[in-house]
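S1.2 Input.
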Amino acid sequence: MGWHQTFILVGIPGMQEYNSWMAFALCLLYLLTLFGNLTILFVIKTEQSLHNPMYLFLSILSCSDLSLAMSTMPTMLGVYWFDAREISFTACLTQMFFIHTFGVVESGILVAMAFDRFVAIRDPLRYTSLLQNSVIGKMGLAVLARGFCVCFPAPFLIKRLPFCQSNVLSHSYCLHQDAMKLACADTRVNVLYGLIIVICTFGLDAVVILFSYILILKTVLNIASRTERLKALNTCVSHVCAILIFYVPLIGVTVVHRFARHLSPIIPMMMANIYIVVPPFLNPIVYSVKTQKIRQRIRKMFQQKKIRN
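S1.3 Output.
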């Protein structure tokens, strides 16, 4: 057999009759993701009282979520709705790069938001002066540059491999670890690269976030007033939810890929879809529900529309 020029994406293994239902659910989630994140961005842009570091970091998170959703949803909907399962080698590599880049970017933003919460609780009087717009902009660019640099080699490491046997991927979008398994050549370099990237980005980020929250808890416990302690901790609830929403599916996908041979093929497919779809969908909901200023501004916005009508 010659080298493959395309990959085949998959829907629900062995249950193609349910693809249209999955397509409907994904389309609905996609529309709600776009609406939720664009609403967050609009509210932060138009409400002057939200022009502080915490909400600026949230707007960067929403941009990352939108980018991740737009990188994956077209091919996912194509597979489930139109059975358009074939993707060119180049398109697959491009999608792979963007998915992994925005995954690393999201992790980096969560670290920056942990630092933001630490500064806000540790030194509230100097909070806005320490985290000025220029500093936040530089942190955002650093997170984006890190994501770009660490994920840039991934497509080239896949491109050098021959694919002369199966070209059927495990998901409805392209991942480095998924494509790598199909190569009929030595993939030790790819495995080592993937391991180093996971440890140096997601692993390191998780450690930094954990350390930040240890310092936050230490600071909060030194606050004399119980009311003030609860108030300080309450400002971290949304961020903690965002961390869990991102890292739990990520760990799930990693574990499932490691033990995929012993599992039903439906489980890796579901875990991969959850990892891609759920965080961008849930983050705006969590911040809208848990953040009073955003909630009030959204309510006010919809009330104004009703009055106009």
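S1.4 Remarks. The chain has a mean pLDDT of 88.
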